[in-house]
Automatic annotation (TrEMBL):
Cross-referenced Pfam families: DUF1885
SUPFAM superfamilies in the cross-refs: Rbstp2229 protein
Gene3D superfamilies, A to Z: Rbstp2229 like protein, Rbstp2229 protein
Protein name as annotated: DUF1885 family protein
InterPro entries xref list: DUF1885, Rbstp2229-like_sf
Transmembrane segments: none
Organism: Fredinandcohnia quinoae
Range of residues in the leader sequence: none
Length: 143
């Protein structure tokens, strides 16, 4: 299994995240890609988001994206929080994150879509994206 993380840092436009927030962001993604398809006169929505959102474990904050398309299989998306130490603050601070996991059954198509979704979420939330390959992309304004 491979993991990527979108961390909500202090400069992010949102400081907390729920599973419903993630679902809303995916629905927004589907909406804007379908508008792009309408402008191009092409059924782009199905290509851009070839998954159905299945809630597997709401108690532990996990979504399961399942696809019936030949090139795609599955992506798991979760929401969590961790305590981080900050040099400027005495007490550890809570930091929310979105975890995107590629299960063993994931295809190369799933990895490409997962990277695309991670970049979209990172940009939309102005977060810190830790990619599957270990690289970090900063979507928030840095001082």
């Amino acid at each position: 299994m491979e993991n990527a993380y979108i961390k909500l840092v202090s400069a992010s436009n949102k400081q907390s995240m729920t599973l419903n927030d993630v679902k809303e962001l995916f629905n927004y993604y589907k909406e804007i890609t379908s508008k792009t398809g309408t402008q191009l006169d092409w059924e782009y929505a199905e290509t851009a988001f070839p998954y159905q959102i299945k809630e597997v474990d709401t108690e532990n904050n996990w979504l399961y994206l399942k696809s019936n398309e030949p090139k795609y299989n599955a992506i798991i998306v979760g929401v969590g929080k961790e305590l981080i130490e900050d040099d400027n603050v005495d007490d550890p601070q809570e930091q929310f994150y979105i975890q995107v996991t590629l299960p063993q059954v994931a295809t190369y198509g799933d990895k490409g879509k997962a990277n695309e979704f991670c970049k979209f979420l990172g940009k939309k939330l102005e977060g810190e994206l830790h990619l599957f390959n270990g690289r970090v992309m900063y979507y928030y304004k840095r001082k």
